[in-house]
Each structure stands twice: as structure tokens, then as C-alpha cells.
Amino acid sequence: MTGPPLLGDRLRGAAWTFLTAARTEQRSMRGNPLLLVNAGFLPVVLLVIAVEAQRPPADRAAQIVTSVMLTALWGSTVWTSGGVLRRERTYGTLARCVCGVESPTVVLFGKSLGATLYGVGTILVATVATVLALRLPVALAHPFWLAVGLLVVVVSATTLGALLSCLFLLTRNGLLWSGALMYPVFVLGGLLIPQDVLPVWLRWVPQLLSLRWINEFLSDAAGPGPSATPLAVAVALTVAYGVVATRTYRWSIDKARQRGSLDHA
Amino acid sequence: MSGAAIEVEGLGRTFKVRGGDVVALKDVNLTVGQGEIVGLLGSNGAGKTTLTKILATLLLPTGGTARVLGHDVTSDLREVRRLTGVVLGGERGLYAKLTGRENLRFFAVLAGVGRRGLVDRLEAALDHVGLADVADRAVETYSKGMRQRLHLAIGMINEPPVLLLDEPTVGLDPVEAERLRQDVAVLRSRGTSVLLTSHLLLDIERLADRVVILADGEVAADVEVAEFAKLAGYTAIVTVRGTGCPPVLDGAQASRFAVDDLTEASGLWTLRLRVRDWSVESFGHLGAVLGGATILGVDVAPLRLEDVYSHVAAQLAANGRTGVGEVRP
């Protein structure tokens, strides 16, 4: 038996656990039908519909492609990274994930990252293939900022997925909530339908969605030039998602340990 | 740090349910020494799994304290989890789509196994539980016994000094169950402390140093295995079949034997005697009891722990302690 680990060892241990959780979740995503539908099929359908009526010019095409990808990412996030804890409960693995040596939050965020990376990768492949097949003239004016935007997309979708996962853990009907949340955000999220088309009293909804701000940033980066404000708001919202997710998860675990419901299906 | 691996003092756990509270544990006191294997027995609902879950930090107690190697299970979670291996078993608790190796790898990392030497440790653990040949198959193709063996590998992968085993041989065939018992026996020689919950008293008989019986959420007995066997009040059952008049025990013989059952039909009788203390002299005493009777056959069955437990459970039931958590309005 050894004594308690040093800070450096603990950080290394947390990083190792985080990466292993991400890798494990990626592997468990293989062939997941929800992922294939939301990350593989959805962007293809949305893109075909979006350009069917009228072929857009290069700058508008980039905006459409970005909006479609982020819309598909929302669907993927709700069902995959947002469903991490729901699936753990179904498999009966939640108790072990919570009672590991490292913080359960590290495992949750690692798993959410794994699911997000798989989703983003699938969306990118499906979208690029569709853009090439449709011969859409997409311009990449600022590739560096597009890469920055992509990084923020992954981090933000990871924390958003973790937050949704925690919220779905609070209810036994997480699957129903996943379905219920998906389409309203398609309509109200400011991704496919412009925000100014929404009723005034509903325009606050997209302001709370980091993907809407990232959409604005990426659209600017693909056209006239990146703007710092939407990126900053997206990062701030991402941090807020992370904080709320962490607190909600700790609270859920404490409650489950009090009630004895940690290993319930 | 004290010398005990597990210390439980006045431990209580009450579940709130509609219509009242269910008391699963109340004022449980027990210790498991370092390198000791303690068998935990009790009827369904006696509180065994509740106790195991509290020690595994899956459940918070509502009263009392529990420590693992001196670390409190409610406040020092990281250390308790680092020092404790848990095997809850069952068909759930695994990722069905992942392979056995992928499952073991993930849970090994959660248990604190670092990158260095991980691959070797995985190979050794898979080999040890006999899953090396199927390690790269998806768990959804595993039999119940294979899943149970994978649970065992997961629980022992970080070689914890304290191991909580909840029904470890359930679902295993006799050969696999025996291999598991040998594995646990090896752990004893390494100094691992084990709290073993099992309905199979063969597990307890073969492995445990001590037996703790829970009833109604309390410790009803806490004795050495050898002492536990004496709780039944006899050490063997002799079944004698004969014809004619059945034997009658006199006062001296009654101190050595107790008539368990006597049936007569069609001139044949069957007498079941409980032998209080089986020894070489018992044959002589038995001969005196049966002297003059026409004997057709004699069968001697040594006491099994199942018999002891049945006896103890019957006594507990007679005292109004059924082992099932009571409901308080």
C-alpha cells in the first residue's frame, strides 16, 4: 500500500482517465444508429434541401454549410454526448464510473468529448462528401480562424453534451427529453432559421445557445472576416455550461448516494 | 491507522419509501482484520448488499461510521476507492458492445491503474480469469459465467488490499466456481482482506475465517467458522433403517444423540439421529443405541454449513427476526 499521490501524479492520473474515457466512448459509438442518423444522414439531407431551390454564391454557400453542420451537431449532441449518463444508467455502469479513483466529472467530460469527436468527425465527412457531390462553391477565406472555430465547436459541444447528460440524469425519461429538445432548437436555435424571423418574445432562446454564436463566428470567418464578440460569447457560454454541468452532476451523485439509486436502471 | 481493514460502528441505513421508512441496517458493528476473509450471511433483505454498497461508497449511511483501512467511507472517498475492489457481479455493469479487453482496460483506469504496465496487467488478469482467448470478443456474446469472470477481473485489476465480493460465484459452473475460490484463497496469502457475501455456503466454508450473520439489519452472530458450525448443536446426521421395534434412547444416550425424525411404515422404520459431537467413540455409542434392533442400513451425513444456517435462520425466525427490513410508519 502506498500513500496519497502527489499533485503532479494526480493531474497525470486525471488526464489519463479523461483520455481513456474519451477513447472508450468513441469505441462504444461505433455503428451507433443515432449517430449515423444525426451526424451522417442529417447534414446530407439538410444540405440537399438548402441548395435545392437555388444554388448559392460562394460566400452564402459557406454560411449554409456551417449552419447545416452545427444543426447536425446539435442533433448529434442531444443523442450521443447528451446521452452518456443515460446510457451508463441503462448499462448499469454508472456506479463504477462514479466510484472510480478520479473525479466522476473527469469521466463524464472525457466521455462527452469522445462522443463529440466521433459526431464532429462523422458530420465533417458527410458534409464534405455532400459539398463535393453537389459541387458547391465553398470559400475558406480565413482557414486559421475556421480551425479556431472548429476547436471551440468541439469544446462547446462537449460541455453542452455533458450539461444535457446531467439534466437527463435527473429524470427517468431522458430518452423522451432528448427527442423533445431536438426539434425546438432546430427551429429556435438561430442556426437554420434566422433569429430575426422568430417572434420577438422568443429571440432570447438562441442567445443561450453557444452553437448559434459559433455559427456567427464561422460565417464571418468564411466571409468578411472573424469577429471577436461572437467567439467570446460562445466561450463564455461554454464555460457556463461546464460549471452548471459539474455542479449538477455532483448534486445528482450526492442525491443518488443518499437515495441509493446509483445503480438503478 | 488502526490494524483493521474494515471497521463498522453503529452503522445504520434507512430508505425513505412511500408510506414510511424501510430500515435496512441498524446499529451494525463488525471488523475485518487485515488479511482476514469474513463471510457475510443473511436472508434476502437482511442488509448484506446495503452494507457492501456503503463500504464501496455507492451508498451513504444514515447513521454510524464505516472505515476502510482507517479512511471514512463518507468523507475520504478517493482513498477508500483506491484501496477497495468491488465485485457486485450480475449481467449488467459492462459495456455490451465493447470487447472484454476494452471493458477491463476502461475500468482498470477508473480504478487507478496507470499507463505503465497496464497492458501486461490486462493480459495477466484476462489470463487469470480464463478470458484471454475471448478477450477481443464483444461482451454481448459472453455467457453469464464469462461476464461474472470479467467482473472479477475488474474488481481485482488494481490488486486492492480490501476486496468486497457480493455473490461472486453466482452464474459460474462448478469448475469456474472452484477456480474462483482458489483465486480468493490466493488473495488471503497476499494479505488481502475480503468481505464475502454469498448464499453458497460452500464459498464461506472453503474461504472464510469468520462468519457474520445479518438479520433485520443487525449482526445476529459473529463467530469463527469452526464455532459457526457448532451453532447447529450437532455435527452429523445418522439415518438408520431397520425392521422390528425401533430403538429407544435412554438418558445417557440422549445427551449424545437427538432424535430428529422417526417414521414407521409396513414394518420398516427410519430413524434420523443428530449426533452432537462426532468422534471415534460415537460408533460405540451408536452401537449401544441400536443394540438389539434389526438394521438394514446406516447412512452418515456430516453437517453442512447450509444445515447450520437453516438452523440459525429458523431460530432467528422463531425470535421474530426474519431478516426482511421492517417498515416503520
Automatic annotation (TrEMBL), chain A:
UniProt keyword Transcription regulation present: no
Superkingdom field: Bacteria
Location (main, coarse): membrane
GO molecular function, one term: ABC-type transporter activity
Bilayer-crossing regions: 33-51, 63-85, 117-138, 144-170, 175-193, 228-249
ABC-2 type transporter transmembrane domain segment(s): 23-218
Membrane topology term: Multi-pass membrane protein
Cellular-component GO terms for this entry: membrane
UniProt keyword annotations, A-Z: Membrane, Transmembrane, Transmembrane helix
Pfam families the UniProt entry points to: ABC2_membrane
Regions annotated as coiled coil: none
UniProt subcellular location: Membrane
Keyword Chloroplast in record: no
Protein name: ABC transporter permease
Organism this protein belongs to: Umezawaea endophytica
Automatic annotation (TrEMBL), chain B:
Family the UniProt entry places it in: Belongs to the ABC transporter superfamily.
PROSITE patterns, per the entry: ABC_TRANSPORTER_2
Localisation per UniProt entry: Cell membrane
Keywords: Antibiotic resistance, ATP-binding, Nucleotide-binding, Transport
Gene Ontology CC annotations of this record: plasma membrane
Tagged with keyword Transport: yes
Example GO biological process: response to antibiotic
SMART domains: AAA
A GO molecular-function descriptor: ATP hydrolysis activity
Pfam families: ABC_tran (PF00005)
InterPro entries (UniProt xref): AAA+_ATPase (IPR003593), ABC_transporter-like_ATP-bd (IPR003439), ABC_transporter_ATP-binding (IPR050763), P-loop_NTPase (IPR027417)
Organism: Umezawaea endophytica
Taxon lineage: Bacteria, Bacillati, Actinomycetota, Actinomycetes, Pseudonocardiales
Residues in ABC transporter domain copies: 6-241
Gene3D superfamilies: P-loop containing nucleotide triphosphate hydrolases
Main location: membrane
Keyword Nucleotide-binding assigned: yes
Protein's recorded name: ABC transporter ATP-binding protein
